[in-house]
From TrEMBL:
InterPro entries: ArsR-like_HTH, GAF-like_dom_sf, HTH_MetabolicPath_Reg, Tscrpt_reg_IclR_C, Tscrpt_reg_IclR_N, WH-like_DNA-bd_sf, WH_DNA-bd_sf
Species annotation: Streptomyces himalayensis subsp. aureolus
Keyword tRNA-binding set for record: no
GO BP term, example: negative regulation of DNA-templated transcription
Acyltransferase recorded as keyword: no
Domain IclR-ED: 68-213
Any one GO MF annotation of this record: DNA-binding transcription factor activity
Gene3D superfamilies, sorted: 3.30.450.40, Winged helix-like DNA-binding domain superfamily/Winged helix DNA-binding domain (1.10.10.10)
Identification of the protein by name: Helix-turn-helix domain-containing protein
Sequence ranges assigned to domain HTH iclR-type in this UniProt record: 6-67
Length: 213
């Protein structure tokens, strides 16, 4: 801690991070041990966070992340989208295909940013807000492969006709971005993805990841 930081705020944020890392919640005693502070301090921290709906306690007294974090989370997508747009525009114009940034939302892949090329006669209509299972389409499969440590070789995934008949896609996962799981990709009306597209998508994913760090 430095003179410019707040010890209480720091502890509150640490509580939220600890609770976010567990599925079954934590007791006051467990939080006290992990934070290295007495139980009275933990009670005060939890009471304050509960007032803002950032923490809730179940009937057994275990603290869990509260629904209030969803309101904060909704503001993340616009920030991520803004950071990703320059790389997506460059990718769409270079490849001549619709570029997109896809993030994990529960068990689904959610397109949060989409850029269409300006110079092509036709392209795939794809919009922000589109959802699909993670195990279908290049975007979701790239995320799963990265999650499972199975993305070997070229570093991207290809798919054809899994989400839309006649459409092919390529996607590469974001890497090294804390708290964000996603991919960058393109979708095009083609029976196959040209060879140069995969490496270009990998480069775009790296650009987006750098912008988000």
């Amino acid at each position: 801690m430095t003179a410019e930081t707040s010890q209480t705020l720091d502890r509150g944020l640490r509580v939220l991070k600890l609770l976010a890392d567990t599925d079954h919640g934590l007791t006051v005693t467990e939080l006290s041990s992990k934070l290295g502070v007495n139980r009275t301090v933990v009670y005060r921290l939890l009471a304050t966070l509960e007032q803002h709906a950032l923490v809730r306690r179940d009937l057994g007294g275990r603290a869990r992340v509260g629904l209030g974090v969803l309101g904060l989370g909704r503001q993340v997508h616009p920030l991520v989208r803004e950071a990703a747009l320059p790389a997506l525009r460059s990718l769409a114009e270079d490849i001549g295909a619709t570029a997109h940034l896809t993030l994990v939302d529960g068990a689904e892949a959610l397109a949060v940013a989409v850029v269409e090329p300006t110079w092509t006669d036709y392209h795939v209509a794809y919009r922000a807000g589109i959802r699909h299972p993670l195990d279908r389409g290049a975007a979701g499969r790239a995320i799963l492969a990265a999650r499972q440590g199975a993305l070997n070789g070229p570093g991207y995934m290809l798919a054809h006709g899994e989400l839309e008949a006649g459409a092919s896609g390529a996607a590469a996962p974001l890497s090294g971005v804390t708290g964000i799981e996603g991919s960058v990709g393109v979708v095009m009306l083609s029976d196959c993805v040209p060879e140069r597209v995969g490496p270009r998508v990998v480069d775009a994913a790296r650009e987006v990841a750098d912008a988000l760090r």
